[in-house]
Recover the amino acids of this structure.
């Protein structure tokens, strides 16, 4: 019996050659074609693209062949392309959406199937529920050879980069960055974002040189192409030893960003989110609501209060965050993972744009990244944060969930619990601190997050939570 295909917080992901097979990708494509026909969207066509993972190109071609057999005109990306670039292509080509073969930041043995609807953001729960229904109902997968599909005009190859870069040039003051004389080290993490930032910044006194800019589906030297501290040791060392102004890292499909300051210190994703919000509110004088995943920093709540804007706390995942951003015309939206979205662009994470805005902040103020963080802390106080990911066996899920749901917990690490909620997982609120434990929606991991006013408190909270949950 074929295993059911389930869409998590950002698409369906599975291990290559185990569940992620050409047969199952074909089922996904056929289900998507049936969904597009049932909703009257098939005539608008579909963008299809892929990242740099093993067989991603071939999986994308499988999707295109299925779409052609179902008479859904397909724009097939010529090369591996970032998810935000392909998402923007939906608007640029006025298509019904995009099917993207990527597992984003997962380890190299994984791949995935993302669907972005016609508004160019993450599919809502309602849409993914429908997709799962159509995929489960697939009887026969229709397909035609790709060569014939091209001859018949059902598949058209295209380069999504130029239109995206033109859009970015209207959102960021590239000339100011180019003329700032910055020395930028970019870690593409062997992913689809390679080449974008150096190309956009070429032609001035700023130099952007790239690390891990080739395609390698094994992602050597890192646990997975996720721009967090343990995967950015080479970038951190390069920035420190070679005296770069800043390090910018992109994950495997370039929808997330990581930032390293001029001293080689990783700036946490919570700090980056808060810095970008402060930049838009203070330096650029913009106003509008902020939308945050519940695991993001309380610094954002403090900034919202200081600048008189609304803040909305949502479940983790842009399938929840993106729609709220559109509904509220938010200034910015983001989550702890390092994925941020901005008004005037797509309601989806864009690591390239996020990195460029960090550089624009530096160029306009003349400040180093560490000085920018210091200025943030001067406004909202020092905040420290850590996330621990714990692998667990499937049979332990219900036991862990029962502990999360227990009403008996009154204190943790000697700190009284002042409140709790279940926006996503279980959040415990303390005086000037919080802790969240939740299951990942994309990997078999329990994630434990904490933020406090000292690193010692963060470590104590996470250790105590792991002990309490038995992980």
């Amino acid at each position: 019996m074929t295993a059911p295909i389930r869409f998590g917080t950002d698409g369906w992901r599975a291990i290559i050659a185990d569940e992620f097979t050409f047969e199952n990708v074909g089922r996904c494509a056929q289900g998507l074609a049936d969904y597009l026909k049932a909703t009257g969207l098939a005539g608008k066509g579909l963008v299809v693209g892929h990242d740099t993972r093993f067989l991603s190109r071939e999986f994308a071609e499988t999707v295109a062949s299925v779409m052609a057999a179902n008479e859904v005109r397909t724009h097939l990306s010529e090369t591996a392309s970032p998810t935000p670039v392909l998402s923007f292509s939906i608007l640029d080509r006025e298509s019904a959406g995009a099917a993207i073969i990527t597992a984003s930041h997962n380890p190299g043995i994984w791949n995935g199937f993302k669907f972005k609807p016609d508004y160019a953001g993450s599919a809502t729960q309602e849409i993914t529920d429908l997709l799962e229904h159509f995929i489960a109902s697939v009887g026969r997968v229709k397909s035609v050879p790709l060569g014939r599909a091209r001859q018949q005009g059902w598949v058209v190859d295209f380069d999504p980069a130029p239109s995206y870069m033109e859009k970015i040039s209207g959102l960021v003051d590239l000339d100011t960055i180019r003329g700032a004389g910055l020395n930028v080290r970019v870690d593409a993490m062997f992913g689809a974002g390679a080449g974008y930032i150096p190309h956009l910044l070429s032609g001035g006194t700023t130099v952007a040189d790239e690390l891990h800019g080739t395609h390698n589906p094994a992602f050597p030297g890192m646990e997975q192409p996720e721009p967090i501290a343990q995967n950015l040791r080479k970038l951190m060392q390069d920035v420190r030893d070679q005296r770069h102004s800043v390090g910018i890292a992109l994950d495997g499909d370039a929808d997330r960003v990581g930032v390293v300051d001029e001293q080689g210190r990783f700036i946490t994703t919570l700090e980056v989110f808060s810095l970008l919000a402060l930049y838009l509110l203070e330096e650029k004088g913009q106003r509008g609501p902020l939308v945050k995943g519940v695991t993001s920093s309380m610094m954002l709540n403090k900034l919202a209060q200081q600048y008189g804007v609304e803040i909305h706390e949502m479940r983790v995942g842009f399938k929840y965050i993106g729609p709220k951003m559109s509904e509220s015309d938010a200034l910015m939206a983001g989550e702890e993972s390092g994925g941020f979205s901005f008004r005037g662009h797509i309601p989806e994470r864009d690591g390239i744009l996020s990195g460029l805005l960090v550089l624009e902040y530096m160029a306009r103020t003349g400040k180093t990244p560490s000085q920018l963080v210091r200025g943030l802390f001067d406004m909202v106080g020092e905040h420290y944060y850590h996330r621990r990911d714990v692998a667990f066996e499937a049979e332990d899920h219900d036991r862990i969930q029962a502990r999360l749901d227990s009403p008996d917990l009154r204190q943790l690490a000697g700190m009284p619990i002042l409140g709790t909620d279940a926006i996503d997982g279980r959040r415990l609120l303390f005086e000037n601190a919080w802790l969240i434990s939740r299951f990942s929606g994309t990997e078999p991991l329990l994630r434990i997050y904490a933020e406090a006013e000292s690193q010692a408190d963060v470590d104590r909270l996470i250790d105590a939570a792991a002990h309490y949950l038995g992980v």
